[in-house]
């Protein structure tokens, strides 16, 4: 509690003191005259000795009294100061406000010199220093134009909080990239607005602004100074800070107004690239550091250095102001972490514990917790009430390379294990939300912390949902030029037509495929139905075939019986005819014997004494009786034979009825069998034909499916080739 009160009292004291100091300070334009912050050179840079020779070399072929392109004559001091048809091109004391300087540094179009390489950095520095020093005509000239700030970046405390209205978003900024590299390089820097769906991506000589919801490019901010190694939005999201430069040559901090894209300040004039920088909450101070091992604080009011902290023993790699503006934290390549009073630079805490280089530092929104990340692989949380460690954990094998807080206290980090991870506020639980093919360099939360933006050494930049890690979009650190966009648009229209045609072809192929599938289904069903019918008929045929043999056997038995009965009838007929022959033979003999017996009897009766006649009559009568007896026996035999013949005939007739029935049944069964054989043959042929139809239908389906697959592949290829 004592420390917190002490910090607050320091801030109150500083605010009161700085108000007095600001009133007392001479008005010097904010960092737009970096040479003004250094010692006065022995020789004054002037137009006649220093600038005119450079103009002759690169500009006077277009801007001379004879040609005077755009109404600008740079061949004389008076012409240069008069300016062009539109306006003055040189504002003494303000290089960034001078159109000449903005054009030759290619921070503003038209880039100069036209159709030629950009001027060497040494010449650009000379132009800048000449203008910043007042744009003298000769070495003996006096500065005739007073320099001073045109605006103040300092805001009230409330303005550092979330804006009451819509958060600042870029409006009408140029979209043409300053540089379009042939190959994407490593992501140099990354930042996200604290309140708006806006991300800043650093690449060579430019900063790219993207809408994180749509992934649309909203603007390109030229950074002629070199590589922007640091990007940071102000606490209210209205300003964007970029820090960087050229290694072993120069470095500085640039501030832009987010909405208009206008450069509002340039801070510092380093002899090496700036590697660490931040702007405090009320936008009154900027801190920067780098290979010089010195952490410097500058006031944005006049660009003057407020303090230089020389406590670091190696390159200053990270720096951050506390959200309440009271503290300034920093870390260096030797693993040192320090906390200083933001407005005075006085020591506050030394945070010992990291074993390797510090890569990133950050304050939580409440300013009570400070986080540091190191190449030793750990993230450490520190209590700003007493400077004691709160938590330390190994976050990334091989080293942590970036950390950032969300408004709710969660932490996002990247590291040499190629992953991006989101941690709970206490660091107890971490979840990987992305994994790259190379070292993950930078990561930040979006304004609502629903997404994480991260990038790696290959220049890949992904947007992932924090909830499930699902990819929500991609950004580019090497966007296409307007010409490429136009070309891509034309290709897009052509590909859209191809895509539409491919889609129509695919739909037609799918319709054909569905029809062939229906045909195959019908053919399969028909084959199934006809085979079932053929199988049923075959089964019936087999069953009927089984009944034919018993019927034939049964008929054969009865036919044999009838044949035997026929034989019996024939035998009875033969016996009857044989029995009739004796009667036929005896009847004339009996008739003759009867006539003889009658005659002899008559003769005997007439002559009874004729013994011979009497005997002859008696013998004739006996013979006649014997014949009659034989005839009677023969007649009885005929009756018996007739009865036998009738019985045999009756038996034959009786046997013929079931035989005829069995024969009729057999004939009917054979006829039915023949019919079934015919039907079965036809059904089998139909089933074979239906089965044969299934194969072509299947082949048609396969062909249609292959066509659908091929067209789908073509469509997928077109979709992948579609310019975005």
Written overview of the protein:
By secondary structure, the chain is of the alpha+beta class. Helices cover 41% and strands 22% of the residues. The chain has helices spanning 2-24, 47-58, 77-82, 99-104, 121-132, 482-606, 611-721, and strands spanning 189-192, 198-203, 206-211, 217-222, 227-233, 239-246, 250-257, 263-270, 276-279, 285-289, 295-299, 305-309, 316-321, 327-332, 337-341, 347-350, 358-363, 369-374, 378-383, 389-394, 400-405, 411-415, 419-423, 430-435, 440-445, 451-456, 461-465, 471-475. Helix 2 packs across helix 5 (121-132) and helix 6 runs antiparallel to helix 7 (611-721). It is rod-shaped.
List keywords for this structure.
724 residues, alpha+beta, 4-stranded antiparallel β-sheet, 7 helices, 28 strands, 22% strand
